[in-house]
UniProtKB/TrEMBL annotation:
It comes from the Eukaryota. Its main location: cytoplasm. This is Armadillo repeat-containing protein 8. One of its GO terms (cellular component) is nucleus. One of its GO terms (biological process) is proteasome-mediated ubiquitin-dependent protein catabolic process. Keywords: Cytoplasm, Nucleus, Repeat. It is found in: Cytoplasm; Nucleus. InterPro entries: ARM-like, ARM-type_fold, Armadillo, ARMC8/Vid28. It comes from Cinara cedri.
Length: 667
């Protein structure tokens, strides 16, 4: 083809009209010339890229790309232009995403096999896939795309890097992971990692991490793959060594972390404990780039999250706590600079990464929590983080606070001194589901009876808020809602208990008692137990909702529930039986008495003990009306049953039976 020469490739009003017109011509030579001019005019110029978009050229490019009447050269120029636009500003990339450019390119990628065209497609897709606002799963809309990506991995170094990068960005679910495994991607890792090409190794490692993340079966299969006599974990261990580039060390440590968290590696495996962990701690140090420090901290937080031994080891490794103190105290603005958005972003990223590590470090050990809380201005930074406009910072801050709130000492001192409950309560309004879950869970701890924060939280409208959480579709929110109410009701004043019961309502209480999640049922029964404690409160609550409570308890005992749930229901009856007036709800209901009698001979000793405890409270001889109650119990044959049970070898049952029998004056 003959190309019209241009000394200066600048698109203006006159030239743009001419070349736009030529894009629509059926003359392939003119169309190619127009595309070639546009390609050269936008290269390195975001202003020229804006002109292309503003003049509607993008729409025409997406018409040209699938047009089978166009030549391979035209298709190649079109994709190169799209790839150049993808390297423009974020707004320009958003325009490409909104125009569904990736889908157009993927379709063309499937239809054609010209090597240069394939490479241009991969480069363009790879560039766009780096942005978070694209639907990355579009790559998995057609398995044929995955198959062809797998084929291109062996074509060239450039294609290998792009394909691995695309797959690592697109792999977001277990289904995606399984598709990649089925297409044999897992078996290409060892070969691709057996090179001296750092960029290829890093891209491959990123795909490896995505593929095995939270996937036990694939992780277990990957560790069995060998190359040149080395297993994949051994290869990963060597790639996080100090002689490797930082980016490689980071992602290799991430791969080891993913294998461990998926259960493919044991916690005491040297590759975990003496490989990934010290490497990540080392990469948090201040001689590294801030981006690498942040990533290292975030991976470290995941690595140690669930294991006390790793948390303990990390806490004493390479001055980690001191390093994290540098993170949280990282200045928002350098000295002499103001309104610098970049430095503000950096400071926030450093803080949220530190919050994540602190949350993991303090998950189990009180001594570690104490050391964490002594970090300079930490609680002040956490409180500021709770108020931050960034959901990422908010979530990291509240997770850190949740971890530290497991400390009784901190609940009584530091948390109260800083009134952390205030920003937590404010955070609940309009929060995302994830933030709402962790925040409400933290407030559950602040509502424990020994916490000084309990009273002010109650006074701020918490009852209504947590009752509303019990109606959410997310089971974790329902659990936190009822858990908080249970904590509120523990040793609470009568007016608080009354408010909880009236605000929750009996209908919702029944809903929670039949919830599909056992933990929600258990905490609801725990709430009822706490409401029905101390004689005056028992009588008062039963006077308010006695019939409904009895109906709820009977529903639990009659239905096919777990023994733990039935035990809680029997304990509630035991509490009711301790009331002065409330016990009549049991004594006047033969169905309940017979159900209690039935559980006295249950094969589960805890259910037996709970039923006998209930009888003991009903017949307590020092209480008014005990003689009449004892007479009825005898009449039903329960006394005789107690006398038979006294021969039991179970010490728990024996003690309960003995206590009950001593209440009968003539026994």
């Amino acid at each position: 083809m003959n190309i019209v020469p241009h000394q200066i490739f600048v698109m203006n009003a006159e030239t743009s009209r001419y070349y736009i017109d030529n894009l629509y011509t059926q003359d392939n030579n003119k169309c190619y010339q127009a595309l070639n001019f546009i390609k050269n005019s936008i290269m390195g110029s975001n202003r020229q890229k804006n002109l292309v978009i503003a003049n509607g050229i993008l729409h025409r490019l997406l018409q040209v790309l699938p047009d089978q009447s166009k030549t391979p050269e035209i298709r190649l120029e079109t994709v190169i232009i799209l790839g150049s636009l993808a390297k423009g500003t974020e707004d320009q990339v958003r325009t490409l995403v909104n125009a569904n450019v990736v889908s157009f390119i993927l379709n063309a990628f499937l239809l054609h096999d010209e090597p240069k065209f394939i490479e241009a497609c991969l480069r363009c897709i790879c560039t766009i896939m780096q942005y978070p606002f694209i639907d990355h799963s579009v790559v998995f809309n057609d398995v044929a795309i995955i198959k062809k990506l797998a084929q291109t991995i062996e074509d060239s170094i450039s294609n290998s890097i792009c394909s691995m990068s695309i797959l690592s960005q697109a792999c977001c679910t277990t289904v995606h992971q399984n598709i990649l495994w089925t297409e044999g991607i897992g078996f290409t890792f060892a070969n691709l990692l057996n090179t001296e090409l750092d960029d290829l190794s890093v891209a491959t490692l990123k795909c490896f991490a995505r593929m095995c993340q939270d996937n036990t079966s694939i992780s277990s299969a990957l560790i069995a793959i060998e190359c040149n006599g080395k297993t994949m974990p051994e290869i990963l261990y060597s790639m996080r060594g100090g002689d490797r580039p930082t980016g490689m060390r980071l992602v290799a440590s991430k791969c080891i972390t993913c294998l461990y968290r998926a259960g493919a590696l044991e916690v005491n495996d040297p590759k975990v404990m003496f490989g990934a962990l010290p490497t990540l701690v080392r990469l948090c140090q201040n001689d590294q780039k801030w981006e690498d420090r942040v990533e290292a901290a975030e991976i470290l937080a995941v690595l140690i999250e669930d294991d006390a031994e790793l948390q303990s080891l990390a806490s004493i490794s390479n001055h980690l706590l001191q390093t994290l103190a540098e993170f949280v105290n990282y200045p928002i603005q350098p000295i002499g600079q103001y309104n610098n958005t970049f430095f503000e972003l950096r400071s926030k990223e450093m803080k949220q990464a530190a919050f994540k590590v602190f949350a993991s470090l303090g998950a189990n050990d009180e001594e570690i929590r104490k050391k964490i809380i002594e970090t300079d201005n930490l609680v002040d930074h956490i409180v500021m983080g709770l108020k931050d406009h960034s959901p990422k910072v908010q979530l990291a801050a509240v997770r850190c606070l949740h971890s530290l709130s497991r400390s009784v000492q901190q609940l009584r001192t530091t948390f109260q001194d800083h009134s952390v409950w205030k920003p937590l309560m404010a955070l609940l309004e309009g929060a995302s589901k994830e933030i709402l879950s962790v925040t409400s869970s933290t407030l559950c701890n602040l509502l424990l009876d020994f916490s000084p924060s309990k009273e002010p939280i109650l006074e701020s409208g918490a009852i209504e808020l947590f009752c509303s959480l019990t109606k959410r579709s997310d089971p974790s929110l329902r659990l936190n809602g009822i858990w908080a109410l249970m904590n509120m009701a523990f040793q609470a004043e009568q007016k608080i208990k009354s408010q909880i019961l009236s605000t929750l309502g009996t209908v919702q209480m029944f809903n929670l008692l039949t919830d599909s999640h056992v933990n929600v049922q258990m905490k609801t029964l725990g709430l009822l137990r706490n409401l029905l404690s101390t004689k005056p409160h028992i009588d008062y609550i039963m006077n308010l909702s006695g019939d409904d409570i009895i109906e709820a308890v009977m529903m639990i005992l009659k239905n096919d529930n777990l023994p733990e749930i039935k035990e809680q229901a029997l304990c509630i009856l035991g509490n009711i039986a301790d009331g002065d007036i409330a016990k009549d709800y049991i004594m006047k209901n033969n169905v309940i008495l017979m159900k209690i009698q039935e559980y006295m001979t249950n094969e589960n000793s805890k259910l037996q003990a709970s039923a006998i405890f209930c009888i003991s409270n009903l017949v307590w001889k020092d209480e008014i009306g005990s003689a009449d109650r004892q007479a009825k119990i005898k009449e039903m044959g329960i006394l005789e049953l107690l006398q038979q049970l006294i021969t039991t070898s179970d010490s728990l049952i024996f003690d309960k039976v003995k206590t009950a029998l001593t209440q009968f004056s003539d026994s």
